[in-house]
Amino acid sequence: MALDRAYIFAAFAWLVAASVFGTYIGIIGLTVQSNAHAHAGLLGFVISALFGLFHHNWPKMGKSRLAVAQFVTYQVGAILLVVGKYQVDATGDSAIVAPGSVIVIVGTLLMALIFARHSAE
């Protein structure tokens, strides 16, 4: 599957997950988890959709040797960050959110590098 489509499918998966989670925390009144919900929507849905549009608009980005690694890195980092944010809000334990945040930053920097190298071609 082309990375533009992979990113868009991942974005829809994030949107469904964030929507279900947001509905759940709203129904049970667990508003302390609203930050985790927002992170899932923004880092998961919005950024994945945006990265998918980058790949769609600049197809040569997907031919980068780093492209698949960047996709996996970013998605794993986003999952860890959102799960870690949930954990921080529930227990105060930041064991997962810190590495997740660093992995998201690495994934974002990889995307910037791929864009810089391949968007002008």
Describe the structure concisely:
Helices cover 80% and strands 0% of the residues.
Describe the structure in your own words.
By secondary structure, this protein is mainly α. The protein has one domain (3-118). The protein contains four helices and no strands. The protein has helices at 3-28, 34-57, 67-91, 97-118. The longest helix is centred in the first third of the chain and has 26 residues, at 3-28. 33% of the residues are buried.
Query: Low-confidence parts, pLDDT < 50 over ≥5 residues?
Result: none
Cα(first) to Cα(last) distance is 22 Å
**Shape field:** elongated
Helix/strand order, N-terminal first: HHHH
Mean pLDDT: 95
Q: Give the C-alpha Rg.
A: 15 Å
Relevant terms:
single chain; 121 residues; mainly alpha
Give the arrangement of secondary structure elements.
Blueprint: H1 3-28, H2 34-57, H3 67-91, H4 97-118
